[in-house]
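Sample pair:
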Amino acid sequence: MVEREPSWQGASESQAESRSGRKRLWRLLRRSPLGLTGAIILAAVFVMAVFAPLLAPHNPSLINILDRLKPPGTPGHPLGTDNLGQDILSRLIFGSRVSLTVGISAVALGGIVGVAAGLVAGYYGGWVDDVIMRIVDIWLAFPAILLAIAAMAVLGAGLLNLILVLGMLSWTGYARLVRGEVLSLREKEFIEAARATGARGWPVMTKHVLPNIIAPVIVVASFAVASTILTEAALEFLGLGLPPAVPTWGSMLATGREYLSSAWWLAAFPGIAIMITVLGINLLGDWLRDVLDPRLRGSL
């Protein structure tokens, strides 16, 4: 009679491995000043977005004409006020919610669609691959920002529409990346062994192929969050994102361009917020690329 390892023992070993993996990542992150800087910036923006009602000193939508265009350093308004007397700091804090929500949600949507399309195209090949890749080629033939402007003009302003449009703009990059990775893996011995056991189609793709290509997908997604935040800000700047009452960094920039000569802080502070957030995401993405790329892992 064969003695089996108790289930609780296997679970404890799995938890121990998970803890050791987290410790290793934290150790690698501490050894990378740029990666650590990016993680701190992203963590600060995330905390600011989650706890916005507690951190914001004022209601971001509160209009007070008597306090309009107050300069930075004004008592009660450390970053000044805008043309409607709204507190700049409060609107920046609440605007981080929109940027992170749109950036992460749109990338997740585009990633799911693109990874699924790339898996199917690379695994099955033939006419299936041709059809999916021709759709990708047609999609890439149109400038992304023009597609976004046209789609938002048709669908109208709204958070869900914004996420849907930006997500659908990004799926082609994942599809091409995943297809290329799958083409190099589908004839490997472990895939043939899985087929020999009777596994076919989607089970093989999700259980055997996907775990081996997830690392480059994570790296691409990390950079895509930054570019999505920039595109969202551009749409807001053009008045095609969310309703004007919703505080966003892009709409704050659009308002500030009319007061560049008399009230520079209206455009400067949201521009700095976008720059720092995108920089933090890119720094963390560079670190993830170095950690997940086996060719660069030995230098860490």
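DSSP finds 13 helices and no strands in the chain.
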